[in-house]
Amino acid sequence: MPRLLLLLLSVLAFFLPPSSSARPKILCLHGGGGNPSGFRATIASLAAALPAFDFVFARGGYPVADGKESYLWLPDPPGGKKEPTTDPAISDASVARLDALVAAEGPFFGILGFSQGAAYVPVYLSRVAAGTFGVAITFCGYLTTTHLGVLEKVMEEKPFGNVPAVVWMGKQDTVISNDMTRAMADTFADPLVIVRKGEGHVVPYGNDPTLDEIAEFVMEAYASRPPTPSKAPTVDKPTKKPTNKNPTNKPNKKPTNEKPTEKPVGCQKVFEKKTCNKTKGCSFYNIKDAGKKYKGCYDSMGAQECKEYAGKNKKTCKSYGCKW
Fold it and tell me: Distance of CA 224 to CAs 16, 55, 210, 310, Å?
């Protein structure tokens, strides 16, 4: 049944335009010190395994003071990790950003996170009504033991309305131990726990067989529980731009020599490489992972993401749209 549903939804994806309101959405939380554009490239293989879904990328509420596009979901404890905080509202800036995004672009069927983003999935689930999301997907997550006030709220609200959950970890993860990820898995009711041998602190990529396992789980959850409106504090949506009040002032046709746009429709809607590279904030990716090739137009990476994900050699760097 799941494979049949995957096929049917994949066919449906060809008839529904990107970001169509009819397409289910997954809210994506980057890792600590990351940003939306870098995380978009990180989960490219997972997005390819779920072509009928739109992936919407959020940004943490706490910028890192490193002069780069780096953000955290939880600020570092003022006294260091050995002195945990007790304030349950210490990450409210991130909660507010997510609330606004859910209100503006919801409903969302799923919520997904990697590393600190994965740790923040239970945190945000503890702050919204049960049923806000239909599935939770985490990679290399952990409990927020350095923020006890936040963790106490998670423990009070678990298992978050029995939301179906996938908890993925790399067997060789030296950043977040498997025991730490299993402890986070216990906050969910009967999660699918995947331990991938030979992998570390990553999101599965390329032809990793666990991608199909995750995709089938998400499809099954989607089939058994259609998406319901995400519940978040009411935020006034921006009104739609008026439709050319003075048609005689501006021609409908775009001038030939007009400067690159500020991404009015998103980089993913730019299909041609030449157009993509001329559009401000966009880069054309040509990525090869484990024998598979991924091409497309995405948000440009920041300097930190280029260094982290594409700094192996000149060829790899250029494939990610970065400068060597």
Answer: 21, 20, 21, 39
17 token code pair: 């335009």
Q: Contact at 8 Å (CB) between 218 and 110?
A: yes
Separation between Cα atoms, residue 297 and residue 295, nearest integer Å = 7
pTM: 0.67
- Containing 56, the helix (H) or strand (E) segment is strand 54-57
213-235 burial, b at 16+ Cβ within 10 Å, e below that, comes to: bbbbbbbbbbeeeebeebbbeee
State whether residue 28 is helix, strand or coil. strand
Longest dimension (CA), the chain: 66
Give the pLDDT of residue 283: 67
- Cα end-to-end span (Å), the chain: 46
- Cβ distance 269 to 284 under 8 Å? no
pLDDT tens digits, one per residue of 255-282: 444 444 333 334 555 556 666 666 656 6
Backbone torsions φ then ψ of 120, nearest 5 degrees: -80, -15
**Euclidean distance between CA atoms 155 and 73, whole angstroms:** 18
Note whether 319 and 273 are within 8 A (CB).
no
Under 8 Å between Cβ of 80 and 52: no
